[in-house]
Amino acid sequence: MQQQLANIVSEATSAAPGIKTRPEFEVFKAKFVGAKGSMTSVMKLMAGVPKEEKPAMGKLINEAKGKLEALFAETLARIEDAELAARLGAPIDPTLPSPDDFAGSRHPLAQIREEVCSVFHRLGFTVADGPELETEWFCFDALNTPANHPARDMQDTLFLPAGTRAPDAPKKADEAYLLRSHTSSVQIRTMLSRKPPIRIVAPGRCFRRDTVDATHSANFHQIEGLWIDRDVTLKDLKSVLDSFVREVFGNAAETRLRPSFFPFTEPSFEMDIRVPNMGALSNRWLEIMGCGLVDPKVLENVGLDASEWTGLAFGMGIERIAMLVHGIDDIRHFYANDLRFLRQFA
Ligand code: DAH
User: Fold this and answer.
1) Bridge-partner residues for 254, per DSSP?
2) Mean pLDDT over all residues of the chain?
3) Ligand 1, atom 5: nearest CA belongs to which residue?
4) Helix and strand numbers, DSSP H then E, in the chain
5) Alpha-carbon dihedral angle through residues 181, 186, 192, 195, given to the nearest 10 degrees
6) Spatial separation of the C-alpha atoms in residues 140 and 200, rounded to whole Å
7) Is residue 25 pLDDT above 90, yes or no?
8) What percent of the chain has pLDDT over 90?
9) pLDDT tier at 155, thresholds 50, 70, 90
10) Region 203-207 average pLDDT
11) DSSP string, 184-226
12) Which residue has the higher pLDDT, 265 or 157?
């Protein structure tokens, strides 16, 4: 019997390393301790062992059982480890360099927005903000653009359904909400919330019902400017905007103010630039923004005395400036999230 036990343990010990899967393990285990297992049959022999030999034999059996159980536990643990490793896949080395080591960078529109804001910051302008979901009054009426004014058509506005609620922008009962069609609404919000003198730029997202093509997007960005003080004149408008153009497009850039119309400025202009070194667009007059002196009606709408206060205002598309600065010919590149495009501005 002693020999039998020794054989069982040595058989199990030599077979264990070859057991690789759970089904193999179950068969292996049953071969020794199953109902018909070799260990089980040895234990059955105990009944015929003379009484005085029983303790010694019992001890041997327990030792052999202990060895088998340790072997089973070890084998099962090895199988479980292999299963886990198979699920985790190939080992990784965290000390290797990342296959994609691109650190990320500012979006080209964010870069231009920051550059423009910082140019105006040096000219004494701070940044102001307003809601993208606006009321008709802030977007049009207060800016001297009453209902049925053709300028409202020009904006091709995205109105929200009646019943829309926007706690950030309280409105009158009969007013509609809209996605702001320009950042000029921030002029009104700023003049109502603080006293002049005021010198702000307001960058932000705007929305129009435009069909998307190479130069139009239903969602785009503008930077609005407003300077309210005593005796602000056309000379100030020209000098502020000339400084801006030289900073962004270089000292060789020329500017001109071309008469135009906006309901909220009088007189109104389009500012054009002409730059000698801008690729295909070199030496051509290019429109870059609308501007003018704040219409006295707008000042009155926000409760400012137009005989005391004067102002200048301007508004430009961030995409337009970015396209000129970088020589980009299709506005859709800005929104496509194509890394081949974005990495050029890193
Ligand atoms: N809000 C105008 C637009 O979206 C741009 C503009 C023109 C803004 C003249 C101004 C301005 O402040 O004075 O087309």
Assistant:
1) 274
2) 94
3) 315
4) 12, 10
5) -150
6) 20
7) yes
8) 79
9) low
10) 97
11) THHHHHHHHHSPSSEEEEEEEEEE--PPPSSS--SEEEEEEEE
12) 265
Cα-to-centroid distance, 247 and ligand 1 (Å): 21
Residue nearest to atom 2 of ligand 1 (CA): 315
In which band, very low, low, confident or very high, does the pLDDT at 154 lie, cut at 50, 70 and 90? low
| Average pLDDT estimate for 182-187 | 98
Q: 235, exposed or middle or buried, with CB in 10 Å at 0-12, 13-18, 19+?
A: exposed
Q: What is the pTM of this model?
A: 0.73
Is the C-alpha dihedral spanning 114, 117, 123, 128 positive or negative? Answer: negative
Q: Which of 198, 226, 262 to mutate to test the pocket of ligand 1 (most atoms within 8 A of CB)?
A: 262
Encoding tokens for residue 81? 């480890």
What is the mean pLDDT of the segment spanning 116-139? Answer: 97
Give the alpha-carbon dihedral of 35, 39, 41, 44, to 10 degrees.
-100
Alpha-carbon 288 to chain mean position: 28
Note the helical H segments in 89-139.
108-122, 136-139
Residues with CB under 6 A from ligand 1: 182, 184, 224, 262, 265, 290-292, 313-315
Of 232, 215, 204, 346, nearest in space to 292 by CA: 232
Between the CA of residue 203 and those of 102, 153, 175, 244, 306, what are the distances in Å? 28, 23, 25, 15, 26
Distance 180 CA to ligand 1 centre (A): 13
Task: Kindly give the distance from the C-alpha atom of residue 314 to the centroid of ligand 1, in angstroms, as a whole number.
Answer: 6
| Residue nearest to ligand 1 atom 12, measured at CA | 314
Pairing mode, if any, of strands 198-207 and 126-127?
A: parallel
Write the CB contacts of 325 (distance below 8 Å, at least 6 apart in sequence).
Answer: 112, 248, 249
- Answer for the pair 164, 177: CB distance below 8 angstroms, yes or no: yes
Sheet containing 158-159: give its strands across: 133-135, 177-179, 158-159
Tell me the C-alpha to C-alpha distance, in Å, between residue 240 and each of 234, 236, 237, 283: 10, 6, 5, 22
